[in-house]
Fold this protein.
Amino acid sequence: MKSMVLNIDYFQKQLEEEKTKIEGELGTVATRNPDAPADWNVSYPDMNASPSAPDEIADQEEEYENRVSIEAGLEIRLREINDAIERIKHGGFGICKEKGEPISEERLRANPAANTCVEHADK
């Protein structure tokens, strides 16, 4: 495989920008866990549901479940981004964790947090 030189600063900037965006989105549905800053706690929606209105309570529960789902996906992505930033800092960025060979620049441009080549993406 031919050697390739990545513009690490470009990917670092992309990852930092996405991290800021994801943290902003997380802030709309959750708050940081003060005991584990990498973890987020879903905030329960305040929809002023009346205890005597089962439909309002059901809507509030549904909104909470939606927030849990959103938070879980965003937190996974944030973890992937943070892992990629750590790989940049410690020299493992752009290397497939399965094969040990360079990840194509095309793949990294599509997903800067990728830690495998396309061949091993589903592993």
The helical segments are 8-29, 54-90, 105-110. The mean pLDDT is 91. The CA atoms of residues 2 and 44 lie 52 Å apart.
